Predict the 3D structure of the following.
Amino acid sequence: MRIPTFGKIVRTPDRISDLVRTARQMKAFNWPREAKEQARHEDGTDGNIGAAPEQFWLGPNDIFLNNEACPVLVYRGAIDTGSLSDPALSVEALFERNGWPVVWRNEVFLFHHYHSTAHAALAVVSGSATLVLGGPGGEQIQIRVGDVILFPVGTARCRLGATMDFAVIGGCPRGQQPDICQAAPTPDAQAQMAQLPAPQSDPVFGSHGPVMALWGAPMHRQVPK
């Protein structure tokens, strides 16, 4: 499969059947009929499984390698925060239940940064913001309350602007602890990123989410010889 060039957005079809068909072509996806019911949780958090995620494919840019093998995923309106008495606590419980324990509760840094030790998921629980993906001059995206954004290891991002009430909950796959990197990755860091395992569950939809299909091995670009 040819990887799109840096900064190009690939907008996936809105219909679940189209997503499943595309994923089957990748030989990596199984979304059973009962998945939608399993996405509805006792605490009121209801994943919007009816919309396929947006995909942003990023290549090397400036000092940032990004992740050419896996796209940034944006689940639009995945969390119905309006029905929750405490969206932040509910999202924390959701991430924990799905194997993505919370490691961050705040906002997004104003400087370009990435993780070399973990994948990451951010759920917007209040307000809205503009992010830059991939480093200086990268793709600008708008995110708002209810959206969930998944960043594969190595993906640079920063906050360009936000409303006063902007807040996110951040989680990583169980067993992964994020670092904060601003410099070009060393050969050792590149090797570490290349060896990081793919997630075993989706932070919003658990075992029935699209991330396992859309992020497959290899998880990162090959380490230069």
